[in-house]
Amino acid sequence: MAKAHSEKQALLRCADGTIKQKNLLTGTEVWTVPGRGHRPLAIPTQDDSPVDHSRHGHYCAFCHFRYFETPPEKARVIFDEDTGWKTLEHVPASQLYSTTAEFRRIPNLFEIVSYNYWNLNYGHVPSAEDSQRMARYLADPAGFEHVMRVVRARLAASGLSAEELADMPDGALLPHATGFFSGGHDVIIAKNHYIPDAENKSQLASSGTLSADAHFQYMQFTAQTMQDLYQLNEHVKYVACFQNWLKPAGASFDHLHKQAVAIDETPVQIEAELERLRIDREIYDGIISLAATRKLLLAQNEHAVALAGIGHRFPSIAIWPLGPAYNPWEATPEQMRGVSDLVHAMHAATGAEVPCNEEWYHRPPSVASPMRWRLLIKWRISTLAGFEGGTRIYLNTINPWQVRDRVLPKLYELREAGLIAPMQLGDECRITPKDLR
Ligand SMILES: [Zn+2]
Description:
Helix content is 32%, strand content 19%. The protein is an alpha+beta fold. It folds into two domains: 2-43 and 266-436, 2-Layer Sandwich (HIT family, subunit A); 53-262, HIT family, subunit A (2-Layer Sandwich), CATH 3.30.428.10. The strands form two sheets. Strands 5-4-6-7-9-8-13-14-12-11-10-16 form a twelve-stranded antiparallel beta sheet. The longest helix has 18 residues, at 212-229. The structure holds zinc ion.
């Protein structure tokens, strides 16, 4: 009885049309006030000047003819018509251009949690394997030159003058490279900056413009990166994983990439969810029933369901893997493909012009809990105002049904055109809490 009551409170339509949402996992309170949601999506103006194709592969530092401007690569995924998809690890500098990476995993040049943080606070040092890898990379003259170039660029960005840098001998520069081989913040970068044959600069290659096959590789590669970063040292409590798409969503480049960051704490948000789950193990059932009964299901396949998110500060789409809970790197290829197909479709339906964050939530491996992996795509299109700061009640200009009404027609179109994988859409979805068992 009490549970039904709380689910009812989670999504209320008031007499005047105000929609009040309460997030069942975080308690976040969000209102959508009538009248404000009819405004068109506040999408930032796009640059539609022509693409200069002579700069192909050079548009930004993440582009594929600028491999030497980013730190030494940890791994890449390549594609060949004959042999299919393959992962190559630790490609030496002299061979970086022997293949073209569809996706590459590199250390972030400007880490959120740095090698120094791990080193000074925990005594973290490179493993024997990391040290060997670093020695091998530097033994190749092209590798040595690459590393020095990137170290200088980083020091210059941190404020060192050209004279100061010129005065530093190689021996003084080298220690700054250790983090490239033993750090905990990686970036997974897709190959293309623009879609093939793009005419203008608004035609960026996004998650939604990848093929469903390529998107699956991107997700799988990201999950492997997370698993790997958990092995960094025994003090890693969580690996945060996210994608910032376009500048309003926090991206430094308009070039598709995800990030994975090892941290030494369980994030507050995850702690809060673990605590709620300790009290109520059926909290996820409530979210799924609520979405199903209030007609907020967007799409589903055998392995996952996508729904318009309830109780988020930004208009959101949530993708929930089905079946027993598992973490991303534990997914079978079929499970990952199912989840990926929905994530891909939701990005395609959202549109590359919408700035968004993709956030992965998962159970910290050291904690026993029924916490479930899922992904949230947040459209970063509304601006927060003073009202929110003073009340901690958030105004979201678009309610979950408006998210559904914007996304569903596009999903039907995309499915019809064969641009997304086969899946059930809208009313075709049949989901019950049993599908989470
Ligand atoms: Zn680029």
